[in-house]
C-alpha cells in the first residue's frame, strides 16, 4: 500500500492501493473494479469503508459508477496528453517592454474584485495541508516562555535557535551554512530583493528562467534592472547552452536567478550535472548566482535534491529560501545566505526592514528542529502528489484536444499549454466571471511567449467543486477556440 | 499631585508631588525637605512610604541625604546648562562622502561585540514601559479566534480591522486617511523605503533634516540617492529658509523627509505654521513630502500634534508611522499612506516583502482600538518624562562645563553637545570598554558636523547603575578633553 500513515483513514489507504494498481496498469481503463462485497472480504473492511473508497476514487476521476453494474476504471485521457514542448532555442533578448507590474497589478486587482469561488491561481497548498494547530501551540508556548518578547527589539540577523535549525536542515540539501551567515527575511521574496540589491543596480542585466514567476519580474522592474529571459526546459530547467550563448552577446550580465527544483511555474528540476556546470561557468565569468530554493522539500520521492550552493567553492552563490510553501502559507519566514556579499546583505536587510520579529522564529524554529517537521513533510508530499495527479487527470480528460501539460515530480504548480493560441487573459476574464481564478501565462514573461499558457494550482484537494471548475475552464477554452475559427 | 494613576505606588505619587514643587521652585536648591516625621503626618503615610519617597528622589538626583540632618534639595546644574545652539546657517551641500553604511555597520558591530551593561544608545523605552502582558494575551486570543491563520496567506495591504483602527487613531493627528489607503509595513523603516522608492531613484537628491537618524542616511545611501542635509533647529525642526534657499541651487530635489514631532535625535517639534508653509511650498515646487510621524504620541502634554499630512490638499504628503516606539519595541509594525503614489507604493510593497503576517496585526488592532491604548500612552508619557528629566539632570550635574543639552518636551532621545570638540567616536570606544554604549553624533550626518555630539536614550528608568554610567561617561569626556589640551 502506498504511504500508509498513522492518521490516514482506512478508506484513503485502500484508495492509495487501488490508485497504484491503476497507475501501474494492473487495472486498465474499462476494467471492472472488484465488487464492494469482494473489497469487504479481501481487505476485511466495513461496507461503509469500501463504499467511501470507491466514491473517493470516483471523485478523483479514476473510477466511474455504472448503474446496477458497479464501479469501472475510467478511460483516461492522460495517455493522449503531450508534455509541454521543450523550448525552441531563441536568442535571449532584452525586451524593451516595461509594464509587468502594471499587468500584474491589473490582473491581481481584477482577481480581488471578483467573487472567486475556486481559486486555482495560487502557488501554495490549501490550509488543510499545513500543521496549523501544532504551530499555534508552538506560538503560545513561545509567548509563555519569553514574557518580555514584545518589549525588546528582535535580535539582529534572526533568532539564534531558528538560524541553527535552518542551518541543520540545509545539511539535507548538502549545504554547509554557518548559522551566522543566515539572515532571516520576510519570505523568499525579501531574500531575492536583498540578493539583487547586493549584486546589481538599476540598468544592470539579470538572467532569469523563462517562464519565471511574476514576483521576480516585478522585483526586477521595480529596481530598474533588465530581465534577460533564458529558454528553460520543462524537464531540466534553464538551458545552459542558451545562457552561455547569451553571455557572448551581453557582457554585462550581473546575476543569474534560478529556481533549481520544482520551478514555478514549470516544475522542472535541474540535473546535478547542470548545477555543477552552472556554478563553475558563472564563477569563471564573474556572474553571481542567486538560488531560490523554496520548493526543494516538495519532491514526490521525498529526497531533498542538492542545492546549487552545495557546488560553490568561491562564495559566488547566494542561497534564498522560505518556509512559506512548506510549513505555513500564513507565515512569511524566509532566509538568505549572502556568500561573498554577506556584509552587504546584512546592511541592506537592516536598512530595508530591520531584523524580523522573534515570535514566529521561535515557534517555527522549535517545529522545524523536531521530527514533527519530517512527518509533516511526508504527509504534505503525499497529499500534493495526489492532488497534482488528480488535477492533471481532470485537465487531460476535459480540456480540448491539443492541450499540452507536463506533470512534474514535485511542487505546487501545473503548467498547461492551451491549443490554438487561446489567449490566457481572455480565459482569465471569462473564468473569473464564473467564479474561477487561474494564473494567465502572460504573467510569467515580459514577452508574449506564454500568452496561451496557464498555471494551475496543484495544491488543493480535488473536490467535486474543483472538478466542476476544470470542466468550466475546458468549455470556456473550447468556446474561445471556436471564436478564433 | 501629578498624574495619579491607580497602579502608581503611594511613594511615587508623593515623589511626583515633591518633584513638582522642586521644578516650580517652591523648594529651592539647598532647602531642607520636610522631615520624615512631618511627611508621615502631613500625608498620612507610613514611615516606610515616606523613606521610600525620599530615597526615590535621591536616586533621581533631586535630593541629597546629609548625615544626621535629613534630606536637602540638591543644587541643580540644569540652570547652568545651555541648550544646544540653533544651527548656524550653512549652504546645504551634497556631500560626496559615501560610507555611512560602513560607519554605522562598524559602530554597530563594535557595540555587539562588547559586553554592554548599560545601553544608552537605543531610541526606545525599556521593556517595562510597554504592555507586554496585555499584548501576549491579545496574541493568544487572536490565535484561538483564527484557527486557520497560519494556513492562508495574509490579506493584501493589511488586516482590515487593524487598518481601520489605525485610520481612527490618525484622526487624533487631524488626518483623514481611508483605511484602504493604509498599507501595513515592517516598521516605519520599510514605509520610508517604499516612499523613497515610490518618488525617487538612484542619483536623485532628497532633502533631510540635519542631524537625522542614521537609518535614513543608510537607506538613502543603499539606494544610491543623495542626501541634502538641511540645517535643523533643536526647537522648531527643519529650517524652511534653508530649504527654500537650497532648492534655488538644486533644482532636482525629489523629496523632503521630515520627522515633525520629537525628531530623532533632536527632539524638535515643528510649529503648525511651519508645517502649513512647508506643505504649500513643496506642492508648488513639485517636491514630495515624506513624513515620518513615529513619535507624535510621545509628547509630555499628551496632545497629539497635527500631522504635516493634515494640511495636504494635493496628495503630495506620504505619511509613514510605526507602533514600534509607542506600543511594542519587539513588534515591527508600521504603516504608510501613499497619497498620489498609492498605486506605486502598493506595488512596491508587494514586490519587496509581500503583505505582512496577520497575527500581530489582529492582536495590535484589538489593543489600539481600545481605551487600553490611551491608558498605556498616558502611563508611557509620564514615565518617559520622568526618565528623560532624570537623565538630563544627571548629565547637567556630571558632564564637564561647556556641555550643552536641550531637554525636549517629548520623545525618547537627548541630544548632547560635548565641550571642546571631544570626538564622539573616541568616547564611544572608551565608554564601550567600560560596558556603556552610547550613539556617537557622527552617525547622524554624512558631514563631520556632529562628531562631538551624543544621542543618549531618555527611555529607561534612572537607576543607580545608570547614574554610575553617566558619571563614567562624564569622567571619560573630561579625560578626552584633557588629552586634547
Automatic annotation (TrEMBL), chains A, B:
Keyword hit for Transcription regulation: yes
Transmembrane feature ranges: none
HTH gntR-type domain span: 8-76
Highest taxon of the lineage: Bacteria
GO MF, any single term: pyridoxal phosphate binding
Keyword Repeat: no
Keyword terms of this UniProt record: Aminotransferase, DNA-binding, Pyridoxal phosphate, Transcription, Transcription regulation, Transferase
PROSITE patterns the record matches: HTH_GNTR
Family: In the C-terminal section; belongs to the class-I pyridoxal-phosphate-dependent aminotransferase family.
Protein name: 2-aminoadipate aminotransferase
Amino acid at each position: 500500500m502506498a504511504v500508509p500513515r498513522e492518521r490516514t483513514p482506512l478508506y484513503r489507504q485502500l484508495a492509495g492501493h487501488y490508485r497504484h494498481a491503476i497507475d501501474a496498469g494492473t487495472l486498465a481503463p474499462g476494467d471492472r473494479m472488484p465488487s464492494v462485497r469482494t473489497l469487504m472480504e479481501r481487505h476485511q473492511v466495513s461496507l461503509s469503508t469500501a463504499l467511501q473508497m470507491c466514491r473517493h476514487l470516483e471523485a478523483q476521476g479514476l473510477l466511474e459508477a455504472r448503474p446496477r453494474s458497479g464501479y469501472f476504471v475510467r478511460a483516461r485521457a492522460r495517455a493522449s496528453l503531450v508534455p509541454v514542448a521543450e523550448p525552441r532555442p531563441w536568442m535571449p533578448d532584452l525586451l524593451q517592454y516595461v509594464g509587468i507590474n502594471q499587468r500584474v497589478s491589473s490582473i491581481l486587482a481584477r482577481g480581488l474584485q471578483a467573487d472567486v469561488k475556486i481559486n486555482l491561481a495560487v502557488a501554495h497548498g490549501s490550509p488543510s495541508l499545513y500543521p496549523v494547530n501544532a504551530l499555534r501551540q508552538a506560538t503560545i508556548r513561545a509567548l509563555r516562555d519569553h514574557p518580555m518578547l514584545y518589549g525588546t527589539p528582535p535580535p539582529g540577523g534572526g533568532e539564534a535557535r531558528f538560524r541553527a535549525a535552518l542551518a541543520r536542515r540545509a545539511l539535507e540539501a548538502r549545504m554547509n551554512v554557518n548559522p551566522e551567515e543566515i539572515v532571516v527575511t520576510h519570505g523568499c521574496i525579501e531574500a531575492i530583493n536583498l540578493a539583487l540589491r547586493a549584486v546589481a543596480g538599476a540598468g544592470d542585466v539579470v538572467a532569469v528562467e523563462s517562464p519565471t514567476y511574476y514576483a521576480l519580474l516585478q522585483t526586477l522592474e521595480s529596481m530598474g534592472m533588465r530581465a534577460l529571459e533564458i529558454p528553460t526546459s520543462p524537464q531540466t530547467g534553464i538551458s545552459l547552452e542558451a545562457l552561455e550563448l547569451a553571455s557572448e552577446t551581453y557582457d554585462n550580465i550581473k546575476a543569474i536567478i534560478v529556481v533549481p527544483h520544482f520551478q514555478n511555474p514549470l516544475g522542472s528540476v535541474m540535473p546535478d550535472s547542470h548545477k555543477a556546470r552552472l556554478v563553475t561557468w558563472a564563477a569563471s565569468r564573474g556572474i553571481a548566482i542567486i538560488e531560490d530554493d523554496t520548493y526543494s522539500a516538495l519532491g514526490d520521492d521525498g529526497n531533498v535534491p542538492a542545492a546549487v550552493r552545495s557546488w560553490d567553492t568561491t562564495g559566488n552563490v547566494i542561497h534564498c529560501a522560505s518556509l512559506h510553501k512548506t510549513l505555513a502559507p500564513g507565515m512569511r519566514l524566509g532566509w538568505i545566505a549572502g556568500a561573498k556579499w554577506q556584509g552587504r546583505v546584512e546592511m541592506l536587510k537592516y536598512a530595508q526592514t530591520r531584523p524580523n520579529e522573534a515570535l514566529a522564529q521561535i515557534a517555527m524554529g522549535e517545529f522545524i528542529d523536531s521530527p514533527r517537521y519530517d512527518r509533516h513533510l511526508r504527509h504534505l508530499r503525499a497529499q500534493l502528489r495526489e492532488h497534482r495527479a488528480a488535477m492533471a487527470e481532470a485537465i487531460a480528460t476535459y480540456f480540448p484536444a491539443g492541450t499540452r501539460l507536463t506533470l512534474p515530480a514535485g511542487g505546487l504548480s501545473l503548467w498547461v499549454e492551451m491549443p490554438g493560441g487561446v489567449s490566457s487573459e481572455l480565459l482569465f476574464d471569462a473564468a473569473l466571471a464564473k467564479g474561477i481564478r487561474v494564473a494567465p501565462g502572460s504573467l510569467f514573461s515580459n514577452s508574449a511567449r506564454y500568452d496561451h499558457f496557464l498555471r494551475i494550482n496543484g495544491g488543493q484537494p480535488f473536490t467535486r467543486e474543483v472538478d466542476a471548475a476544470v470542466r468550466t475552464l475546458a468549455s470556456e477554452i473550447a468556446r474561445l477556440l471556436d471564436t478564433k475559427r
